[in-house]
Amino acid sequence: MPHDDPTIDRLEDQITWYDSRSNRNQQLFKVLKLVVIAAAAVIPFLAGIGTSAWMTGGLGVVIAVVEGLQQLNQYHANWIAYRSTSEALKHEKFLYLGKAGPYAAAADPHALLAERIESLVSQEHAKWASGQESAEKMKEPRLPRAAGAS
To answer: What is the pTM of this model?
Structure first.
């Protein structure tokens, strides 16, 4: 690959960024899920041996907080989305390097690569923004409608 090529630099930068974000979100998702599973498994055991209600209740609080963090930060959805984008960018890289797929017949394969990289990144940003809007709508309090209101 050519050195000091802004298109290739951008491609490598985006692959690295999406790959690292995917890995981080996967780690957080799995660690938090393990905490939930372990806490949920220990609660019946502690209740059975007569441990204080504070202990079993505390574990219930831990489960609620961790699940709330999962829901708020969407670690699982981000892991999948970021991995998908990283793999799509790698796919473009190898098609370009192999002069295959859409690059085989392109008049300017390098320009096509730049367009396709930006398209993939833009799609990911649009999905993220849409997800944020949906999450915000779910957080908004819903006021009851007055009787007789249409």
So the answer is: 0.79
Give whole-number Cα distances, 60 to 16, 31, 34, 98, in Å. 38, 17, 14, 54
DSSP class of residue 149?
A: -
- Among residues 84, 83, 109, the alpha carbon closest in space to that of 26 is found at 83
Chain segment 122-146, per-residue pLDDT in tens = 988 887 777 777 767 766 666 566 5
Q: Which residue has the tokens 């938090």?
A: 32
Q: How many CB atoms lie within 10 A of CB 88?
A: 19
> Under DSSP, is residue 51 helix (H, G, I), strand (E, B) or coil?
coil
Give residue for tokens 């096509």. 112
Two tokens at 3?
């050195």
